[in-house]
Hints:
single chain; Four Helix Bundle (Hemerythrin (Met), subunit A)
Amino acid sequence: MYAAKSALAQYKKINTESALEGASPHQLIQMLINGALDRLSQARGAIQRGETAQKGLLIGKAVSILGGLQDSLDKSADEQITDNLDNLYDYMQRRLLEANLKNDVAMLDEVSGLLLTIKEGWDGIAPVPAPIIEQEQAQID
């Protein structure tokens, strides 16, 4: 049984590393958001099952991912948007720490809802594929 779990973990690691290697910056942000949402869903289940240690670990991972998203904000872009996102990521991290202390599923759901809203916006601004940009540039030249 242990060997099967180890093999599955290794497969997941290789699969994740492969996805990261070929990902654009836009896709990396999408992966981070999805990762945070996954951890929050898993933490919700851990709270419901009374698995305190697992809950803390998962919420900690979600907080770390939010910190990574916060650190990746492009401060040279629209200042109002980046400031709002910076404040929102900070708020979500504080709510998760509070949710961890209180075993509060509603707080996890609140943060998940906020992340889903960000995800929808991020998914809506998918970058234009490189061949299309090159084709448009060729038409201009």
